[in-house]
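Q: Entry one of two.
A:
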Amino acid sequence: MTKVALVVGGGRSLGEYLSKHMAKEGYDVAVADINYENALKVSEEIKKTTRQKSIAIGADATDEEQVKNMVNEVVEKLGRIDLLIYNAGVAKAAKITDFELETFNWCINVNLTGYFLCAKEVSKVMIEKGIPGCIIQINSKSGKVGSKHNAGYSAAKFGGVGLTQSLALDLAEHNIRVHSLMLGNLLDSDMFESLIPQYAKKLGIKESEVKQYYIDKVPLKRGCTFEDVANVLTFYASDKASYLTGQSINITGGQVMH
């Protein structure tokens, strides 16, 4: 029996890496993304480079009907869901006095509400089919410590930790485990790259100096890589972590230790 992973936000950057990584780990992979073309590209590459099955789905994780349809399509085409990776995320930086309510709501919807909706629908499938599954949210160190000029993102990520612990308690009786991965700065991710102009303005430094500024804050003196995330995720999704649930795991190079 081949396990199936559903990667929400799997069409580019870290999500693309994790989709391809789980295929290499022997999972059939459903790549879901709000941009269907990106999801399709990743899915086709998985089929070309591995022996695993893969499908692409265009879905907005904040829309309940689209999430239900997405989960139904995965079950219909791949038969089951053993692992949900919720990787959809957005951020926009501004001081609280200039932070628009629309932006705040957008951050909450994508980073938190979408996670809730996907976990809700996937857990129904796992329970119905008796699957001892795993749900993993890609979170951030901003879910452990506040982040200057990032009120919407940090609030949503803190919420993700509480939601993860609550889901873990709800689903323990079904042998479904739930975790959040608290990532350090993914300096090579599309999201970080997009925020560099805003961070340069916030810090009063040149855009070319932003990455080094964040590296200098890390005890291990480097950014978080996609491989770092994949290595930890692989363990927590595996049977080797069968006694672990409800954890928020730091992948921060020592920058956050609690």
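Q: Entry two of two.
A:
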Amino acid sequence: MKKIILAIALLAGLQTYAQQKYQVYNFSVVNPKQWVIPKNDTLDYELGTYQGSNALIIKRKIGNYKSASLAYKPGLNFKDGIIDLDIACPGKGGFVGLAFRIKDAHHYQVVYFRPGSSGTINAIQYMPEKKAEFNWWDYEATKYQAKAIVPQNKWFHVKAVIKGRRMEVYIDNAAKPDMVYTELDASLPNGAVGYWHGNTQMGAYKNLVVKAFN
């Protein structure tokens, strides 16, 4: 019996070790020449500071509830792993987040945050984007959302653990996930990782680090 218990413990340890094998991609330094960053008549960006920290600042000049924009470095073929980043949403309301398994500007998966809805079921939202127009209204069902405390007007840390069709989202190093979603879109299996900026006058983003499981 002891040998069986020992074998089980050893197997569990090997599985844990295997899960910890990953390749680290540090995207904390944003080089506009290497990144895809939105810039047009209604959207602009700068490499500036927010609350004393260097950050990518994205500004939307004209509000539009159908707006959604990405900032990312192409070339990464992320499937499973851990994504860490820091986000801030100055002002009232707003929608800021992270995109993963990015194919292009209109095909990706996103988890975004509504600081103005902190403490309610609308605080966190997941959705796959597969249209030229950002269609959040197709994903208003409760199963796509989660209740959480999302800080307004200051930096908060986000960690997303993604494995297959499962995603766990942690805010500010919480011991338990603030969101668990088990039906990630299978038609978007891999791709780049980056910042997501919704219908928000200003968003600040920094410290994007991806640990891709081997």
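A: Comment on entry two: The longest strand covers residues 202-213. The chain has one helix and 14 strands.
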